[in-house]
Amino acid sequence: PLLAARAVQGFLAAAIPSVSLAYAAEALPPARRAVGVTAVSGSFLLAGVIGQAYALGVDQALGWRWVFWLLAPMLLAVALTLTRLPTIPRPTPTALATTFTRLAALLRRPALLVAYTASVTLLLSFVGMYTALTATAGERYGIHSAVDLLLLRLPGLPGIALGLFAGPLIARFGAYRIAPTAFLLAAAGLALEAASTTLPVLLVGSAIFVAGLAVTIPALVALVGRASGEARGAGLAGYGFLVGLGGGVSPILVTALAPAGFAVVCLTLAGLLILAAATLALGPRPTPAPTTV
Questions:
Q1: Is the torsion defined by CA of 249, 190, 132, 49 positive or negative?
Q2: Are the CB atoms for 262 and 195 separated by under 8 Å?
Q3: What is the secondary structure of 135-180 as a DSSP string?
Q4: What's the rounded Cα separation, in Å, for the pair 129 and 252?
Q5: pLDDT at 179
Q6: Are 277 and 184 in contact (CB under 8 A)?
Q7: What is residue 88's DSSP assignment?
Q8: What is the pLDDT of residues 44-96, one digit of tens each?
Q9: Within 10 A of 219 (CB to CB), how many other CB atoms are there?
Q10: Residue percentage of the chain with pLDDT more than 70
Q11: Which uninterrupted H or E stretch holds 87?
């Protein structure tokens, strides 16, 4: 029963980013759409930090079951709040075959597939780094308390906020320049963490990593929106799904790599980010189109 419940939870949780991004893309006016969609995407990273801190604190204080017991009424309250959101025009109902045909046409766009490939690495590397950091903090520095583990995550918060202000950089230099550069910056942060021998250097590396990753979010949102064209909502929904998928796969990858050590985990994640940067820099691009998301 526990595994079945976790499977259902994982499926529904993965749908939240997709639906949230699709709604924001359709409900917000064009002038505010880029900022709104970026804020929604950035909240995934923020939730990753807060969620891990919450789970660690409740688990140590009350046990793992209470992580879920306390979260259930909070999620119910959020669900009731969402019913108050403004409605958006519903598309004309179409046959299931037509829906799949349109989806297949969207997935045949090379530029969109390139952006999708890069998007998988976002939460994969983010969740993976913090999962490995929690383990290595205990092994190297004897840090086990929930409060101390939360403090280890604080250096990443300014970087998450930085992503909300990346718009001017994207407007000036273009998303196809900013996204690979930000991925490489995040990879450099992971490399610094891998090479670190002291806690301050480790935390500086984590801050650089999060800052780079946060800037990739608005850049990728812009790329996905541009490559999706008229199907912007569907394109962003796919992006959100793949971001969530990366977050779900991450603990499995980190668990497999954990015996090799923290440095190997960081360098593996850095390699994935470098691959994402190269894919974006060298991959196909959509034909010129409005850059609004």
A1: negative
A2: no
A3: HHHHHHH---SHHHHHHHHGGGHHHHHHGGG-HHHHHHH-HHHHHH
A4: 12
A5: 94
A6: yes
A7: -
A8: 778 877 887 788 788 888 888 898 899 889 989 988 998 888 887 766 555 54
A9: 29
A10: 90
A11: none
Q: What CA–CA distance (Å, rounded) separates 170 from 216?
A: 10
Structure tokens at 212: 């780079």
CA-nearest of 63, 71, 21, 73 to 44 is 21
- Measured distance CA(194)–CA(121) in Å, rounded: 18
**Integer Rg of the chain from CA:** 19
In this structure, of 25-34, 122-131, 273-282, the range with the lowest mean pLDDT score is 25-34
Distance between CA 190 and CA 213 in Å, rounded?
A: 11
- The tokens 């690495």 sit on which residue? 121
Task: Give the right CATH number for 2-88+98-282 from 1.20.1250.20, 3.30.310.50, 3.40.50.300, 2.40.30.20.
Answer: 1.20.1250.20
Phi, psi of 86 (to 5 degrees): -60, 140
Q: Domain spans of the chain?
A: 2-88+98-282
- CB contact at 8 A, 122 and 276: no
Cα 239 from Cα 233, distance rounded (Å):
10
**What is the total residue count of the chain?**
293
What pLDDT digit, counting tens, does each position of 201-255 carry? 999 999 999 999 989 988 998 898 888 887 777 788 788 888 888 888 898 999 9
Q: Is the pLDDT of residue 144 over 70?
A: yes
Q: Identify the H or E element spanning 85.
A: none
